[in-house]
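User: I'm putting together notes for a lab meeting next week and I want to include a structural view of one of the chains we've been expressing. I don't have a solved structure, so I'd like a prediction I can at least talk through. The sequence is below, exactly as it appears in our construct file.
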Amino acid sequence: MINRKVRGFAYGSIAAISYGLNPLFTLPLYQTGMTVDSVLFYRYFFAIVMLGVLMKIRGIPFGLKKAEIVPLTVMGLMFSFSSFFLFLSYNYMDAGIASTILFVYPILVAIIMALFFHEKVSFLTQASIALAFIGILLLYKGGEGKPLSLLGVLFVFMSSLTYAIYIIGVNHSFLRTFPAPKLTFYVLLFGISIYVVRLNFGLNLQPVPSPLLWVNALSLALFPTIISLITMTLSIHYIGSTPAAILGALEPLTALFFGVLVFGEQLTFRIVIGILFILTGVTLIVASESLKKQMLHKWHNRVKLWK
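Assistant: Thanks for the context. Below is the predicted structure for the 307-residue chain, given as structure tokens.
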């Protein structure tokens, strides 16, 4: 029988890799002239349908209390803006590099927690921020030595920031007790409103050009959304949130792999070093958070013994 750790690492790897498939299914749709809004509308719509079916099968109730509607709406908008800015950045820079810069969101979480929740910034956190910043500077020039689009970098940063706000909003509210499928269902349901409005309530929605590209539209809802969600939840259940988060490093690596292999994106030695700096910085900050929790847990246990 496969032990819990092996299962946890397997599920975490699947979750990260499946989320890293975003560019693989998105870029071919862009190449036909489809807009960010149309692509994300299809992604959210089909994901909502799939999650609704999943909730029905698992017997998860759809009902909401009045007090839950506003927080879910706000989190849905944050999550949706994160998707919007990331997908928008694909029009200005290589998707693999965009996905790598997006991966700094744990560092932004730490900064926000320090600024607004008065958490102390440890030396390891400061070192992590410095490493990630150096990594982004190394990525600032593309594969051919040309500077990256400043607008593209800004879009990725906004994507990472809104996702960091979403994570903090969920983890520091009653929403953390929601079943993952139900939380994501309503986050996507409220989040899709952005694209409904931007598409003039569906009047400007572009049709998917060919039957083959419908596979891309459906795959966007299935792999980076549904499968990634379910397997990440299972991974956290088996091995905890910290190892699962560290396995998230496979997300930008997957995006880079397909960017280079399928879309001919450039991968130079400098870019590789920049990516390693960012991944190291994020891994350190995630590991430091885990160490901090372990120390607090031990301290609380000692206090109990003294009592």
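A couple of points you could mention at the meeting. Residues 4-306 form one domain. The radius of gyration is 20 Å.

User: Perfect, that's what I needed.
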